[in-house]
Amino acid sequence: MSAQIDLHLHTTASDGRLSPTELVRLAAGQGLKQISVSDHDTTEGLAEVYQAAQEFPDLRIIPGIELSTDVPGDEVHMLGYFIQYEDEEFQKVLRGFRSGRLERGEAMVDKLDELGLHVSWERVKEIAGDGSVGRPHIALALVEKGYFKEPKEAFAEYLGRNGLAYAEREKMTPAEGVKLLASVGGVPVLAHPSYLNDMEATIVELKAAGLLGMEVFYAQYSADVIQELAVLAVKYDLIPCGGSDYHGLGNTGEPLPGTMGPPPETVERLEEAARNITRAK
């Protein structure tokens, strides 16, 4: 499937490997007409995204973010669209999140060292550059040292939620994430829901907190999973979103931008929801 909309993309501002400019050019080259750059816990790449998009008048940018939130035994990612991201209180919260990412990253490098996998924290920070440090940067350092062939292999055993070197960091709850996004006019959307331990219970809880959408058209899902999620989206009256979740990490088979995405009416519904949130503020 080739899509014209991709609402889940990452750049070097967080844990993607393309700069905002490179990502915009790739997205335009893939024939996309509307994209949202939704970096983890940061909007630092958006100014460059808008600047780069001036080369492509037919490409629309939807300001977005992906927040990492937490429940006992699980991590829940919350996407936000049409956010008024320059809000200073919002940015203050995001700076706190990024500080926590640094502390967590260093703790995980220490754990890896104890387990016999030796990577330099300085090298991890070099790989991250000016971006918000994340586990993929550690995975890339491990690949560079020859411990794994691909970043996803490092996650499977060491860096994932239940991995041997996993470390916690301070996060908000998913319900708090929903409210934070709404506070800046953003439409809260549950990212890759089928990865959750108790998907439908989480949807019910977050719907009560103000959740307005969920990812359905996710590039790493099978057709059967997409159909299952489409049914749930209708059941709970949630806007069906989606995209490639592109990072450019070099994993075999990673979907390119535009591999999968939602229909045009999704963006129309997101826009209307954002207007309603802003009017209600």
Structure explained in plain terms:
The longest helix is centred in the middle third of the chain and has 27 residues, at 88-114. Strand 7, helix 9 and strand 8 form a beta-alpha-beta unit. The strands form two sheets. A five-stranded mixed beta sheet has the order 4-5-6-7-8. A three-stranded parallel beta sheet has the order 1-2-3, with helices on one face. The protein contains ten helices and eight strands. Helix 5 packs across helix 6. By secondary structure, the chain is an alpha/beta fold.
Category from helices, strands and their pairing: alpha/beta
Q: Looking at the structure, what is the overall shape?
A: globular
**Unreliable runs:** none
**Average of per-residue pLDDT values:** 95
The proportion of residues forming helix, as a percent range, comes to 40-55%
- The total count of strands amounts to 8
Percent strand: 5-15%
Give me the Rg, rounded.
18 Å
Largest sheet: 5 strands, mixed
Placed side by side, the strands forming the largest sheet appear as 4-5-6-7-8
User: With helices defined by DSSP (H or I, 4 residues minimum), what is the helix count?
Assistant: 10
Summarize the helix and strand pattern as letters: EHEHEEEHHHHHEHEHEH
Through-space gap between termini = 38 Å
